[in-house]
Amino acid sequence: MAFELFIGLRYLKAKRKNNFISLITFLSIGGVTLGVMTLIIVISVINGFEEKMKEKILGVNSHIVILKQNREGTIKEYRSIIDLLKNYKRIEKVNPFVYSQAMLSSRGKTSGVFLRGVTASYISQIKDFAKIERVSFSLPFNKDIIPLSPPLSKGDSGEFDGIIIGKELASKLNVKLNDFLTMITPHRRGSLQNSLAGFKRFKIVGIFDSGMYEYDLNLAYISLENAQSILGINDSVSGIEIKTDDPYSCDEIVRNVRSRLKFPYLVRDWKEMNRNLFTALWIQKIILFIIIMLIIVVAAFNIISTLIMMVIEKTKEISILRSIGATRNNIRKLFIIQGAVIGIAGTLLGDIGGYIACMVLKKYQFIKIDYTIYYIKTLPVIMDPATFLIISAYSLAICFLFTFFPAWQASRLNIVEGLRYE
C-alpha cells in the first residue's frame, strides 16, 4: 500500500497542466466541508431544541400519570393507590390532581383554560415554577414580585381562594397579581343548585412562566379542594401524578405499576404522552439529514469529475507504471486513495468548522427566534460526539464509493494505447 499511497499523494500535490482540475479538486473538498459542517450544525440545533422541549415538558408535567377509564373519569380510591406507590424506592413524589376545562373572565375579557386542581406542595416541586420570582415584562405586569409559596392558600385573599395563571394568559386577560378572575366550569351534577356552583371568584396569587407558550396561555392552577368542590366530584380526583428519581429511565417503574394496577387504570409516562411531538422532531431530523446529505453527494460527483480528468491527464504515467510491473489492482488503489484523501480532508475540515460554528452559536446566542412558536428565544445547541462520528462516517462512505468508477476506469487503460505516441 506504501507504493500506491506515495504515488497517489504525489498526483494530488503535483502541478497540473490543466488548472481546471485543481479548481475542481478544491471545490470537491469545499463541497464536502460545507455539507458536513451544515449537517453538524443542523443536527446539533435539533438535538438542542429536543432537549429544551424535554426540559420544559418535565418542568411542568410529572414523569408518570395514572388515570382511570370509567364513565366518570375519576378515581375515588386514590388514597390507597398513593399508599401503594410510596413503597416503590425510585418514586420520590406522588400527587393527586383534578383536571378539567374552564372559562376565566375579567373586565369583559374571557379565555378558555385547562384547569388543574393540585395540592399545595405540588407547585413547589415544579422546578420551572419554583425558580420564578419576578415577571419582568411591560404593563400590565408592572414588575410584580410573584409569591409562589404557599400559592393556593386563602391568606391575603380574604374570602377568595387563590389561582395561579401563566404570564401569557395574564397578558391576554389584562390582569396582574392580586386581581380577581371569575371562573366558569362545566359541572358534573344535574341539580340547579350544583350547577350554580360552577361560578366562582378567584384571586390571582401567582403568575408563572414555564417557558412553553401553550402552557403559559392555557393552564391555570387552583387548590385540589377547590377543584373538587367547583366540579362537584366530592373526594375524587382525575388522576395521580408521579415524580421519579430519573425521568429518562422510568420504563421499569411504569411496567411495575401496570402489573399492580390492571384495567380500568391507565399508566403512562411523559414520553408516551408526548410521543407525537418527539416523533415529529425525529422525522424532521431524518428529513433534514437526507436533504443536507445531498450537498455531500454533489461534492462526491465533483470527486468523480476530478479523478476522471486526472485519469485522462495521467494516461501516459499510468501506462508507464503498468509497463514496469504495476497491476490493475495497484492502479485502482492509487486513485481510490486520491479520492479518499479528498473525502477525509473535506470531512475533517467540516468537523472542525461545524464544531467552531456550534461553539459560537452556543456562547453568543446571536440568532433570535420567535418565542411564541418555538418556546425558546435563541437557537439551542447540543454537540453530541455520536453525531460527529455518524456524519463523518456517512461522508467518508459516500466519498469512498464515488471513487470506484474512475479508479476502475484507470485500471482498464490499454498500455499500448497510452504509450503509442511516446
TrEMBL record:
<dbReference type="GO" id="GO:0044874">
    <property type="term" value="P:lipoprotein localization to outer membrane"/>
</dbReference>
<feature type="transmembrane region" description="Helical">
    <location>
        <begin position="386"/>
        <end position="405"/>
    </location>
</feature>
<feature type="transmembrane region" description="Helical">
    <location>
        <begin position="20"/>
        <end position="46"/>
    </location>
</feature>
<dbReference type="Pfam" id="PF02687">
    <property type="entry name" value="FtsX"/>
</dbReference>
<feature type="domain" description="ABC3 transporter permease C-terminal">
    <location>
        <begin position="290"/>
        <end position="415"/>
    </location>
</feature>
<feature type="transmembrane region" description="Helical">
    <location>
        <begin position="333"/>
        <end position="356"/>
    </location>
</feature>
<keyword id="KW-0472">Membrane</keyword>
<comment type="similarity">
    <text>Belongs to the ABC-4 integral membrane protein family. LolC/E subfamily.</text>
</comment>
<feature type="domain" description="MacB-like periplasmic core">
    <location>
        <begin position="25"/>
        <end position="258"/>
    </location>
</feature>
<protein>
    <recommendedName>
        <fullName>ABC transporter permease</fullName>
    </recommendedName>
</protein>
<feature type="transmembrane region" description="Helical">
    <location>
        <begin position="286"/>
        <end position="312"/>
    </location>
</feature>
<dbReference type="GO" id="GO:0098797">
    <property type="term" value="C:plasma membrane protein complex"/>
</dbReference>
<keyword id="KW-0812">Transmembrane</keyword>
<dbReference type="InterPro" id="IPR051447">
    <property type="entry name" value="Lipoprotein-release_system"/>
</dbReference>
<dbReference type="Pfam" id="PF12704">
    <property type="entry name" value="MacB_PCD"/>
</dbReference>
<dbReference type="InterPro" id="IPR003838">
    <property type="entry name" value="ABC3_permease_C"/>
</dbReference>
<keyword id="KW-1133">Transmembrane helix</keyword>
<keyword id="KW-1003">Cell membrane</keyword>
<dbReference type="InterPro" id="IPR025857">
    <property type="entry name" value="MacB_PCD"/>
</dbReference>
